[in-house]
Amino acid sequence: MSLHVPVLLNESLEFLITDKSGNYFDATIGYGGHASEILKRLNSNATLVGTDKDEKAYKHCKEKFEGDSRVKIFNTGFTEIKRVSMIQFIDAYDGIFADLGVSSVQLDDSSLGFTYRTGSPLDLRMDKSKGKPASYIINNYPLEKLIEILKKYGEVKNAGRIARRIIERRGVEKIETTLQLREVVEGAIPKHKSFKILSQVFQAFRIYVNNELEELKSFLSDAVDMLKPGGRLVVISYHSLEDRIVKETFKYESLSCVCPPELPVCVCNKEQRLKIITKKPLVAGEEEIKNNKRSRSAKLRVAEKI
Ligand SMILES: C[S@@+](CC[C@H](N)C(=O)[O-])C[C@H]1O[C@@H](n2cnc3c(N)ncnc32)[C@H](O)[C@@H]1O
């Protein structure tokens, strides 16, 4: 049984690989599910550069792909795409792939606190060497900032009520575990909505502590720079905030002019850099969803460099 079942595997690789001898970048190599399949489809002249923020995932893949000289892996964020490519003397890729979010292994790892089902420290960072754990934010940030995080990164409707409960509770004792946060949230919302809202609250703090949305924007822009003409950018996202960023970036990069319509001539000098391949995102079929619940929310978008 694999540690993490890769989502939309065939679909993503059909789009990604255009040259069997090319250079490829797996931005979120995770437990190497997609990477293994990419490698099977490439020949011996190809290169696959991979990054992952998570140290355990990195170590796993280092071992898994040891002995395959086509693979170069870095324990760093995908925003480092240009730096790690320079180290490998790669100036352009035939395909860049990102399977965003968290792996099943991370969800099950009690030291990370990604799940509210078991009591674990409220950390939520994928790279513990950077930034502050979620418990710091929850115990120290003012009410308005907590409300903003819940609304902006979790689209939580009851943000004000939940944030006020957090402030009340932390006045009594520090909120250090996932179960404490769960209790606070459950005390602030109707019972029948608790699973949905709990997921949104944990998602909000996770996105905030990992700076996920800003990093995604920066990565996508660099990824477009790093593609060869005809090269493909293939992204799988798992929630609407991420998907919106991917969709909007693809749209913006596919426009040749962004001047206001009332201008008689174009003055923006905008360059069209992408052609959108998937007009609508691809989603998992019934069979895949039945076998792998994580695939339920997956959306796959593909664009090609012009
Ligand atoms: C859904 S999993 C990828 C699974 C992988 N495709 C596989 O088949 O095993 C997402 C991975 O992205 C990593 N990740 C999330 N944000 C990242 C970032 N900014 N830079 C690099 N890796 C990141 C996580 O640590 C996690 O291992």
Outline the structure in words:
Helices cover about 45% and strands about 15% of the residues. The chain has about 300 residues and is of the alpha/beta class. The chain has 2 domains: about 180 residues, 3-Layer(aba) Sandwich (Rossmann fold), CATH 3.40.50.150; about 100 residues, Putative methyltransferase TM0872, insert domain (DNA polymerase, domain 1), CATH 1.10.150. Strands 3-2-1-4-5-7-6 form a 7-stranded mixed beta sheet, with helices on both faces. The radius of gyration is 21 Å and the shape is globular. It starts with 8 loop residues before the first helix and ends with a strand. S-adenosylmethionine binds next to helix 2.
Task: Map the helices and strands.
Elements (H helix, E strand, L loop, with lengths): L8 H8 L6 E4 L6 H9 L5 E5 L3 H10 L6 E4 L6 H7 L5 E7 L4 H5 L25 H7 L2 H12 L4 H14 L5 H9 L7 H17 L1 H14 L1 E11 L2 H14 L20 E3 L9 H6 L7 E7 L1
Parallel strand pairs: 1-2, 1-4, 2-3, 4-5
Antiparallel strand pairs: 5-7, 6-7
